[in-house]
């Protein structure tokens, strides 16, 4: 399980390549990347605040819950904070499991 809270942008493709490279025993890897959308009412940016340590611990608890509920081999969660503009990535979740239904359900939960 890898949980990170960071201000820096991430490369989703490189992260998923690294995540999947270590999992030759799984049948499914599911990922979701959230982005800041440019909506019609004028949202162009957002500011995400967090409490260091507390935020990471809360996300780790949710990830551990997912690993207990579904048969997962691994979980990756990265959530950004700070000023983000339309089109920027906010977060990524990836789940690895022997079976696709568990990977999809857990990724949706996370």
Fold blueprint:
Layout: E1 2-6, H1 12-21, E2 28-35, E3 45-48, H2 54-69, E4 72-80, E5 82-85, E6 89-97, H3 100-109
Parallel strand pairs: 1-4
Antiparallel strand pairs: 2-6, 3-5, 4-6
The tally of helices reads: 3
Give the helix proportion (percent range): 25-40%
Mean pLDDT: 93
Low-confidence stretches: none
Structural description of this entry:
With 110 residues, the chain is an alpha+beta fold. Helices cover 33% and strands 35% of the residues. The protein is built from 3 helices and 6 strands. The protein has helices at residues 12-21, 54-69, 100-109, and strands at 2-6, 28-35, 45-48, 72-80, 82-85, 89-97. The strands form 2 sheets. The chain has a 4-stranded mixed sheet, sandwiched between helices. A two-stranded antiparallel ribbon has the order 3-5. The radius of gyration is 15 Å and the shape is globular. It starts with a strand and ends with a helix.
